[in-house]
Structures are given as structure tokens and as C-alpha cells.
Amino acid sequence: MDTFIIQGGVPLNGEVAISGAKNAVLPILAATLLTSEPCVIRRVPDLSDVHFMGKILQSLGADFTFEDGTVKVHAKRVKTRGDYDLIRKMRGSICILGPLLGRKGKATVSMPGGCVIGTRPIDLHLKGLRSLSAEVKVREGYVQVAAKRLQGNEVFLGGRVGPTVLGTANTMMAAVLAEGVTVIESAACEPEVVDLAHFLISMGAKIQGAGSPRIVVTGVEKLHGAEHEVIPDRIEAATYAIAAAATNGEVTLTNMRCDHLAAVLDKLKEAGVRFEARGSSLKILSGGEIQAVDVSTQPYTGFPTDVQAQLMALMLKASGLSIITERIFESRFMHANELARLGADIAIEGPSAIVRGGADLSGAEVMASDLRASAALVIAGLMCKGRTQVNRIYHLDRGYEVMDKKLRSLGARVKRSKEK
Ligand code: EPU
Asked: Are both 222 and 298 inside the same structural domain?
């Protein structure tokens, strides 16, 4: 297992290009199962989750190649039963359910378990598919869905804490080949859902309202092959912006979309971070005095849960007390204990973390627990005096393309090494 060795205290400086969005590309790759014609997806990040999705598509009978950021998928024929072990390992793979049901009228996929950030149920995915007249059973660890002919319907997909991103994606992907009109109320508004809708439309689907809480899908008989370029990864961009601010550096992010980051930029501004936002580029300026801010995670357009951990790392250097409340996942504070090893002063009170900024941080050995927690530990390591070793970096490789290389290009002293 690889580790990162970080010698902290060096301000990041320079320019970094943002990669394609992991959470957009995974459902888009699943959507290629909706047609027997070839699809070409560009600006695909080289991530272990993407390779994993490639393996899943291959296990279902599709041809999958990945070269220089371009994926070609040809699902001429597809099986309807996903490999238990493959699918179980990556939660995002649940989004093959909707496309298989849409194309073949049935699908059997292993039931995803909980994960380190929370229980992660799929009741809303199943509600969406049931509403299209699919019969749903859970048997021997598998979810089985089947329908003679999917029928459009109205469905409300708001859950306990609001909409569901992949649940919206699954319902939309099944509905594109259903008979009649489907209206998804309380749909997720995330840019990744919009990107998926754009890809489906380029395949011949009829979808209106993606990006709003009401998506209307008019079913069509058949979809065709298409080409698509994936949107920039807003979470990766937020991570580098925060890393720059945390090290008092000066970094320009390119190939990104500032409009997808409104809530994050608003919070950074409130925290005293100075920046220039210009459409597809964002320049973080040095010299801002970091102030404590309070934040609650929310569905888009609110502050993303996927940036909560990174903001917590930044708050370690703020003057004052900040309250960070996690409203999407119930146990997404695993990074707090690890940050404490570096000297952070954080108390967890129910869904909130109370961070007392200004503690004297020094490098230590810490353990990554999930993707975004790992990013927070790397940011904290860059802020610390001395050497920080972040173990279990495979979490980072799931969602950050060549992070060590990108950080080194900004002057960070980060080395990847094999864990002993
Ligand atoms: N929920 C339900 N029932 C469901 C589905 C979700 O109650 O059937 C609840 C969840 O437990 C959670 C909330 O609804 O409390 C939101 O979950 P959502 O379904 O939106 O999450 P997801 O679609 O499974 C995607 C991203 C996550 C990101 C969340 C929230 C992908 C592959 N994953 O997950 O990304 O945190 O949306 O924005 O798109 C990450 O990249 O590190 C990551 C975890």
C-alpha cells in the first residue's frame, strides 16, 4: 500500500489544470450500457474508480478501452447480472442498475454495503425504479429489478436529507427508454447530474429540467452512440484552492468552472481567502489572514459534503472557533481524529465538529479513511512543520488524478512510497 511522505511548510505556487469529474464520469460510463452502438468519452480522469468501472463494463460484456484521457465503450451485447465482488467494492457502481433495466428490462446487481462515511441506503434508487413499474426484490445479497415494459410516471425522490445524486441518475437512465413521460420531483441538482443528462441527450434521449429539482424525461424507443467531454471536477478544484490558501500560496487553477463552486468560493471569501475567479480559471492569492467560519453541508447549490474535510483542515489555521456541521452523511468525521494527531483541537458534538484554530501543528503518521478525508490529511500535512506520513493513499487514487505529481509541480515536497 502506498503512502505519501510530506515535508510541510512550503507555500504552493504555480498553475494546475483540473481533471474531468469523477462523479460525472462514473454514471456517464454506466449510461453507455443504454446503447448497442459505440460511445466515446473524453477528458476522463485516470483514477482507480474509473478503471474499476471499466472492469465492471467488461464483465457485463462491453468492450472498454482507456487511452490518453479518452474512453471508448462498445456494449454491443450486455449481460444483465453484474459480478458480485466487483460491484460490491465500489458504491458508485450501483448506477449500472438503471441503464441495464432500461435496455434489457431486467438487472441483477449486488447490494452495496454501507461505507466509512455512513449507512448509504439505496431505498430512493429502488423507489425511482419501482415508480417506472419495475418489480424490485432483494435476494441473497443481490438487488433484482425487472419490468415487462417500463412505464413513465411521477416520482418524488427527496429523502431524509434531501435529494439523491446517483438515485436521480439511476431513475433518469431507466426513464429514457420507458414508455411515456417521467417526472422526477426533488431531483438532485448537482452539475454531475446535468452532465449525465447532456450525454443522454446526445444519445437521443429527451430530457428537460436537469439542474433543477424537476426533471422531465420523455421516453424514446432507442438510444444511439455518442461522444461527450466530461465537466471539470469541482471537488478537485476546491481541494487545490484550499491547499493553496492553507499554505499561503499563490496558485492558478485552470480548465475548471468557477460557477460550479459558488458556495465554496463564498465560504473561502468569508474566511478571508483572496482570489480572482474568471470563468474557467481561479487564482488564489497569498496574504489572506484566515478567519474562522461556520459551515453546514447541503445538497447543491449548498456547500458540498465532499469539501467538508478539506475546509476543516483550512480551519486549523484560522483565528477563532469554527463549527462545521455535516448534514449529508452521518459519520463523515473520521479525519478529525487523524488531524488531532497533527496537533489539531477538534471536538465532535453530534453532527458538528468544533474546530479551535491556531493550534501548533507538527507532522506525524496518519491514516486515510476515505477519499475526501485523505485530501484533508494531505492539506494538513502541507501546513505542518516537519514530516507527515499519510498511509492508505489508495483512497486518494480513487478520486484525485496524479495528486502527488500535481502537488510537486506546485513546489510541494511530497513523495509517494511503498508502505513497509
Ligand atoms: N440516501 C438515502 N437513500 C438513497 C440514497 C441516498 O437515504 O436511496 C441518502 C444518503 O444516505 C445520504 C444522502 O441521501 O444521506 C445523499 O446521498 P446521495 O445518494 O446523493 O449520494 P451518492 O449519490 O451515493 C454521490 C457521490 C458522493 C457524494 C454524494 C453527495 C458519486 C459516485 N458519489 O453519492 O461522492 O458525497 O453524491 O453529494 O457520485 C466522493 O466523491 O467522495 C463521494 C462520496
From this structure: no
- End of a domain among 229, 246, 274? 229
Cα 166 to middle of ligand 1, angstroms: 7
Query: Which atom of ligand 1 lies at the shortest distance from residue 371's CA?
Result: 42
154 Cα to the center of ligand 1, angstroms: 22
Q: How does residue 113 score in pLDDT terms, banded at 50, 70 and 90?
A: low
In our burial notation (b when 16+ CB lie closer than 10 A, e otherwise), range 102-124 reads: bbbbbbbbbebeeeebeeeebeb
Give percent above pLDDT 90 in the chain. 90
The answer to whether residue 115 is catalytic is yes
160 CB within 6 A, ligand 1? yes
Domain co-membership, 72 together with 184: yes
Report helix, strand or coil for 111.
Answer: coil
pLDDT confidence of residue 420: 57
On whether both 122 and 241 belong to a single domain, the answer is no
- pLDDT, tens digit, for every residue of 5-23? 999 999 999 999 999 999 9
* pLDDT (mean) for 249-278: 98
Whether residue 212 is found in the same domain as residue 250: no
- Given 39, 95, 115, 189, which residue is catalytic? 115
Write phi, then psi, for 47 (nearest 5 degrees): -130, 155
Q: Determine whether the shortest distance from the Cβ of 121 to ligand 1 is under 6 A.
A: yes
Q: Is there an atom of ligand 1 within 6 Å of 186 CB?
A: no
Structural domain count of the chain: 2
**Residue 386: domain span:** 2-19+232-418
Beta strands in 157-239 (DSSP E): 181-185, 206-208, 214-218, 227-229
Residues 50 and 62 in one domain: yes
Based on the fold, state whether residues 177 and 70 are members of the same structural domain: yes
CB of 8 closer than 6 angstroms to any ligand 1 atom: no
Q: How far is the CA of 112 from the centre of ligand 1 (A)?
A: 12
Of 188, 208, 229, the last residue of a domain is 229
Distance CA 100, CA 134 (A): 12
Cα(312)–Cα(200) distance, rounded to whole angstroms? 36
Task: Give the C-alpha distances (Å, rounded to integers) separating 167 from 231, 407, 412.
Answer: 20, 34, 38
Residue 233 has a pLDDT of: 98
122 lines ligand 1 (CB under 6 A): yes
Same domain, 252 and 192: no
Judgement on whether residues 236 and 225 belong to the same structural domain of the protein: no
Overall pTM > 0.85: yes
